[in-house]
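Write out the 3D structure for:
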Amino acid sequence: RRAADPQEEQEEHRELGNLMEEEGLLRGVKLGGCLIIIEHLSALKIETVD
């Protein structure tokens, strides 16, 4: 996609934020939890490899 000027990019981020709010905070919490778990698993894997 073409390089967007900062103003357009900001508007896109705002729209994304609104979409996420409409999707519901619970879903965001779930996604955040998954990311945290994945991070912990990666850290554990790295620790066990050493």
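The first helix runs from residue 6 to 23.
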